[in-house]
């Protein structure tokens, strides 16, 4: 195995472009190293991106948007004083990943690029409208998070491409987001269902919404029908029921050791309602 | 043993001193199974079957042998051919050998088929990929009911012993039937009969330390083994037989142990390490991965059970009947007999009949897991009792009290109970504030009783005094639950010297006579009894020396508060002579002073417990939270109450896992799907409420201080108590464990 620790994304991209066999980028390593040790994936080339300048920075831009480096850990996100005020749903989704130890290493980018349909931070990022900068041999482009995963363990990144930054939009006025997952225990488990909701209000009425589902299809889903069900409402019972139905209808899950098709479909609707209520309360300025 | 032999006022027993292994464990100084190494040591790795059931047509090890880092490759041919196949448990040497290394067939996913020793753990792992195994895949079965069905694939012809009735499937290998009275007549007297069926999945003991050992065996047939085990004499006997050497030529040392719960009462990797070592002529260490622990060590049996109980309107049980089918993997040994005997044991029944089946399937060989077999049976029986109480509008504790066994009751499995403490645990439950606490909507309360036999077993203890008056105690039972502290307390009590002046060591197999495994809740009882008697033996020697110094007959000297004293005014007027004054010059007064005791004590004393559980069920997701838990159990006499409470709480915790989320999940292909802790869901700390405990003390007449074992009974009631709480919270009877959210949600939906 070849191990590299490049000083720039251009160098990282070139190393990946020229590598043969299996290549992995090493962010926190909480997927890569676990897979290595359990003999699932032994990379031929391992490119550590943590030595690149600025990868651990959390920056609030002049327009209120945020730029996160690709090595920023879950713990750093939770401990940041401003990020969680703007985007509590994104931060709490990342905070659900693993344990205290895992939090000290795990990153948003790693969670996204590992390609698990159950990745916790991904529905929250999709709901929030997060984009990532993709650097490759041909330069850098901006891609919506929902366009990165293409199937379990698969991403839209081409050979030689890697993510070089994460952009979270400006929160703006009267907005709120939330993420909930279902696990049978209270921590240290993989989402059986995950739901991210992000919305904006005018008065009591929802004017914009994005609802994203995890662990119920081969990739994360951004469900337009869920947004439609609640936009224009004050999240009354009828809107909540419509949201639940739309969420359940969008599910295309599998039966596996973690949950049945019926269970996932049903609980997606339940969690969608609960997450929407939290996002709604947050948009109204309530501290949840 | 006479009751008047029993002490009831104590100076040391019943206190809570610091644990002797505390500092070692919190600083990392404690040496566990994987913590030793030796010069020239190699690392072993084991190749495992990817098939649930397959004939091994051919194994080609040539490429692995040719690898420069590989020093030995072994298959079944490298073990002794002496162990003979026999029916049932008669051929247990053969059964264990067949499990340790497959013979003609791989019998379950994860079954060992070959092993290598190489210069590094990584090289060993990679060298396994060079071994070519040709399999002929056979039909498999993993479910207990399917394994008994006429068309089930046969695991092994001729494995059934004499107990199995004619006409049963060859996978049924042992049969048990017992009871008394006339159940049909009893059912005829009942006002209400409830008949129901229940299933439980296999669960793993989930000890945090994976199996690990280092073995060294020379061409001279002499060997050394270091391993994490609950019983190193067992390991000695079985390893010696499996590699074909004399028992006494193998010295086995038990490491510090990171949990066992019954799962480390047998051998898996130890004979493999020894066989590799003999071939490579170097010491070999083998450490299992978690996945190997799940796939190839011994989980519990899975169970399928039918229960029928008749009750009068006043709560009197008129008859009880149970059929218990237990699947224990591809070998005889599933404790269907234990399940059957324990299930109704808490009750004073006129008419009772129980049947147990031991069934083989393509799964790993089951091993003991705290009160093996009893929790499943209690789940089924106590669920039906709860249903009867609900339907008749009766209080579940009152009904259990009304039917509770007491001294003189003829137990369902035959014997007549001596003094037992079930009624006391039920009275304590009734009086506990938990039982009267109000419940919120969506919450439910569950009650269950539980029983375990407890065990004596071969036991040998030595105690040696030092010149400075301190004492060392050598016991042969690995400390899986704080027994070193309890032994020191009991020795302190008898000798009259401080707890801190006593060091208790788990002696190796070369140092003491045979000791049975640390199982059956036997250690504090049996090693404790032997420690007390060894200390008394040393006191006899001490009194002899004092008598000689004083020039009076030995029967004129007695032992009091750590000193020899004249036994009465007639004996003479001498100041008390402290222990350290006698040991100071013992070399010159007759030599070293030691005490010894060995026996197979028979008075273990059965034990009962009653648990109260409150659960809350989320009706929209089926998720259960355990919000309050109280364990009440008879300890006979709690030697070190912290450890007793720890056993109670641990039983509740493991029971919560077993009841709610833990299970072996097999795919259609017969392969285990959840062989890591991420997917095998044991409870995490945040899943648990504070678990309250009540220690009831009804002394066991069979122990000098009244001890009953407490290690196992604590896991008997939880499955039932939790199932009753969940069923009462959800308003629907849960008949299958684990009660996962999908199962609860489906049950709620079926219920409308
Ligand atoms: C005990 C434990 C518990 C866990 N619990 C959860 C959980 O609850 N929820 C959950 O979602 N996950 C969980 N995980 C999985 C894992 O922690 C997360 O997916 C984590 O976010 C991965 O981040 P990382 O930085 O460690 O990624 P790494 O392991 O470093 O990388 C993961 C993948 O991302 C790729 N990658 C990394 N950086 C880049 C980049 N800049 N550009 C392109 N590709 C890149 C790598 O090539 C690799 O394929 C758990 C893991 C463990 C060990």
Please name the defining characteristics of this protein:
heterodimer, A: 288 residues, alpha+beta, Uridine Diphospho-n-acetylenolpyruvylglucosamine Reductase, domain 2, Enolase-like, domain 1, five-stranded antiparallel beta sheet, four-stranded antiparallel beta sheet, 33% helix, globular, B: 752 residues, Aldehyde Oxidoreductase, domain 4, Aldehyde Oxidoreductase, domain 3, five-stranded mixed beta sheet, 26 strands, 23% strand, binds flavin-adenine dinucleotide
Write the layout of secondary structure elements.
The complex is a heterodimer of chains A (288) and B (752).
Chain A: E1 2-4, H1 9-18, E2 23-26, H2 32-37, E3 45-48, E4 58-60, E5 66-68, H3 74-79, H4 83-86, H5 88-95, H6 100-103, H7 108-113, H8 121-128, E6 131-136, E7 139-144, E8 149-151, E9 154-155, E10 162-168, E11 175-182, E12 193-202, E13 205-214, E14 221-222, H9 224-230, H10 237-250, H11 261-283
Parallel strand pairs in A: 1-3, 2-3
Antiparallel strand pairs in A: 4-5, 5-10, 6-7, 6-10, 8-9, 11-12, 12-13, 13-14
Helix pairs in contact in A: 5-8, 9-10, 10-11
Chain B: H1 22-27, E1 42-48, E2 54-60, H2 62-66, E3 70-74, H3 92-100, E4 105-106, E5 112-118, H4 121-128, E6 132-137, H5 144-148, E7 172-180, H6 183-189, E8 192-200, E9 212-217, E10 223-227, H7 232-243, E11 250-254, H8 270-280, E12 284-287, H9 290-296, E13 302-311, E14 317-327, H10 336-343, E15 352-359, H11 374-392, H12 396-403, H13 422-431, H14 433-436, E16 443-452, E17 459-465, E18 471-475, H15 483-495, E19 502-506, H16 523-550, E20 557-560, E21 563-566, E22 577-578, H17 579-584, H18 586-589, E23 594-599, E24 607-617, E25 624-634, H19 641-660, E26 691-696, H20 718-730, H21 741-750
Parallel strand pairs in B: 1-12, 10-11, 14-15, 18-19, 25-26
Antiparallel strand pairs in B: 1-5, 2-4, 2-6, 3-5, 7-15, 8-13, 9-10, 9-12, 13-14, 16-24, 17-18, 17-23, 20-21, 21-22, 24-25
The complex binds flavin-adenine dinucleotide.
Task: Give your account of this protein's structure.
The complex is a heterodimer of chains A (288) and B (752). In chain A, β6 (131-136) and β7 form a beta hairpin. In chain A, α5 runs antiparallel to α8. Chain A has 288 residues and is α+β, with helices and mostly antiparallel strands. Chain A has helices at residues 9-18, 32-37, 74-79, 83-86, 88-95, 100-103, 108-113, 121-128, 224-230, 237-250, 261-283; strands at residues 2-4, 23-26, 45-48, 58-60, 66-68, 131-136, 139-144, 149-151, 154-155, 162-168, 175-182, 193-202, 205-214, 221-222. Chain A contains 11 helices and 14 strands. Among the domains of chain A are: 1-51, Uridine Diphospho-n-acetylenolpyruvylglucosamine Reductase, domain 2; 175-283, Enolase-like, domain 1, CATH 3.30.390.50. Chain B has 752 residues and is of the alpha+beta class. Chain B has 3 domains: 22-30 and 456-599, Aldehyde oxidase/xanthine dehydrogenase, molybdopterin binding domain (Aldehyde Oxidoreductase, domain 4, 2-Layer Sandwich); 42-139 and 205-296, Aldehyde Oxidoreductase, domain 3 (Alpha-Beta Complex), CATH 3.90.1170; 373-453 and 605-750, 2-Layer Sandwich (Aldehyde Oxidoreductase, domain 4). Helices cover 28% and strands 23% of the residues of chain B. Chain B is globular and about 85 Å long. The interface between A and B is medium-sized, with 22 and 25 residues. The site of flavin-adenine dinucleotide has 31 residues of chain A, from β2, α2, α7 and β10.
